[in-house]
Structures are given as C-alpha cells and as structure tokens.
Specification:
The chain is α+β, with helices and mostly antiparallel strands. About 30% of the residues lie in helices and about 20% in strands.
C-alpha cells in the first residue's frame, strides 16, 4: 500500500478541485488502512468523481472503489429529486399550454401545402403548413388560435381526400410520427395542370361543403358548377357588405382576389360589388382558358369563414362601373 495523499489528490483533481485528502492510518504502525476520505471544493463535482469507481489509477495496478459519503448521498438524492420535479413541471407546463399544432397524416402524395391550407380553412385561420420537416405523407399544421386547432382535430379525422384512405390527425409533439402517404390513385386537388386526375370543381365544392358543415359553418349557395368557359366569371358569397367596416375593405378583397387569380393568367380587371348583398366579385381575364382555370380553383373554397362559388359570365357584358 504505497499510495500517498499527494497521488490521490492528483488523481481526483482530474475531474474536480480537491480541498483535502485524509488517509486512515493505523495508530501504531502509521500505515494507511487502504482507504481515504477525499473532500471536494464543491458538491457539484461529486457525480463526476463517482464515475472514477472501478477505474485503475496511475499509482497502483488494480481498480479503486469510490463511494459517496452520507452527506454527498443526501445531496445527490436532492439533486435527482429537483431534476425530476423540474422535468415534471416542464411536462405539466407543456400539457397546460394552448396547443395550436396538428400532425396530419395519410396524405395523398399530390397534396401540397396550399391544398392543405384550403382544406383546413373552414376551421379557422391557418398560420403555417410544414411538410418539409416530417415524414412523407404528413404535415404539421399551425392554427392561429388553439380553439380552432382543437375543433379541427375532432372534426377532420376520417375525411378522405380522393385517395380512398382516411386522413389521420393528432396534436403535434416533436418527434411524433404518423402513417405515410396514401398511395391509391393519381389524384390531385386542383385543376392547374400536371399529372394526376383532378378532383374537379364540383367534387372540391362538395368536399369543402362537407368540411364546412363539420366546422359548423353555414352551407354555401347551391351551384351546379362554374359553367361554360368564358373570359369572365363572378364570385358569390365572398363577403357580407353589412358586416364590413373601415374605408379600405373593398381594396383588401380586390387585392386578395387579384393575387389568387394572377397565378392562372392575365387578370384584366377585378370589381368588388359593395351594393349587392350576395357579396359579389367580378373578374375579367384576357382569355377564357385562364379565367376557367381560376374559376375552377376558387369554386368551393373558403375565405374568411365563407364558402364561395364561381360562375362564368358573358365578357361582352362586363362593364362593371366601366373599368378600371
């Protein structure tokens, strides 16, 4: 037993500052009895020192035994208790916090973030849709209000989006997973070109009507479709003039419609008819093909909690307040 206090201090100071080393010695021979008390400068170093248990120090050829004294055991127990309490408090806080994010799964491969925004619009304002950070065939949808997320979570489960497989929905927790993408058919939500069989304007209108009913909203005006393609069409139920306030609401609606339609072609004119209680917006395109694409994309959609419909009109009669 040739170990000295100096060797023991040097060994333990690899992981923590040592205040004192006391080797227990025989009172007659002054030879140490094979164990010592090592006092550290701070209690926070104790867990690191305990990890040296069973290691072979550089001053002997066999492993050493390292144990905490009663005082340190009490400290470690308090640390563990405090950590457990902190973890539980975090869990409780997360559970009590308003949950605004949903994890939606079993989505058809052709569904885009924009499609999902459209589908969920009847339930409330959607803040964001993220399909890039989760598994294929799923998306994280964030609502502006927690109550809208709650309503959507209980109402949209089981809806089929054209693929023959009901979508799944649950509140989102980081790391959560859902089933992958539905693979039945080559379906797509919109009629904007590309591969796939489109749901169609009437099919989409019926779907949005069903979603609106689940959300507790009034059904849209009855419509059998957008009609024969022309360069002009009228949007119905876009707003309620009696409930609009402020000086710029017509400009805001015009800007929204123009932005939605511009992706389909050359928009010549948009007119918001504030005098008609049906909430009409008249749209004129440069050609019938672009106008039809826009009408089909908008027909059956929801804006501000209102289901809209579109119907083509005669462009020769389009003289709404004689432009511009």
């Amino acid at each position: 037993m040739k170990a000295t206090e100096k060797q023991i201090r040097k060994f333990f100071e690899k992981v923590g500052k040592v205040r004192d080393v006391i080797m227990i010695r025989d009172k007659y021979t002054n030879r140490h009895k094979g164990y010592a008390y090592v006092e550290l400068n701070d209690l926070e170093s104790v867990p690191m020192v305990l990890m040296l248990n069973g290691t072979v120090p550089d001053f002997q050829r066999f492993p050493i035994l390292v144990k905490a004294s009663e005082a340190e055991k009490n400290f470690l127990a308090k640390q563990e208790s405090a950590a457990a309490a902190e973890q539980q408090a975090e869990i409780d806080q997360r559970a009590a916090a308003p949950r605004r994010k949903l994890l939606v799964g079993n989505l058809h491969p052709n569904i885009t973030e924009g499609d999902l925004r459209t589908v969920l619009a009847p339930f409330g304002d959607v803040e964001s849709v993220d399909m890039s950070t989760v598994a294929p065939g799923s998306a994280v949808v964030s609502f502006v209000k927690a109550e809208d997320a709650m309503k959507a979570s209980t109402k949209i489960a089981g809806i089929e989006l054209g693929a023959g497989t009901p979508i799944s929905v649950q509140f989102y927790e980081p790391g959560a997973t859902v089933m992958g993408a539905a693979s039945a058919g080559d379906w797509k939500f919109d009629n904007s070109g590309g591969d796939g069989v489109a749901l169609g304007a009437d099919g989409r209108a019926n779907l949005m009507n069903a979603l609106g009913q689940r959300a507790g909203l009034a059904p849209p005006p009855q419509s059998s479709g957008v009609g024969a393609p022309t360069a002009a069409f009228t949007i119905t139920n876009m707003f309620d003039p009696s409930k609009e306030d402020g000086n710029n609401w017509r400009d805001d609606i015009k800007a929204d419609v123009t932005e939605e339609c511009r992706s389909k072609g050359d928009v010549q004119h948009v007119y918001v008819d504030a005098s008609d209680p049906r909430g009409l917006v008249h749209v004129l395109f440069a050609d019938a093909s672009s106008a039809n694409a826009a009408a089909l994309a908008l027909h059956g959609r929801w804006f501000g909690g209102r289901a809209i419909t579109c119907a083509h009109t005669d462009p020769a009669a389009y003289n709404y307040q004689s432009l511009p």
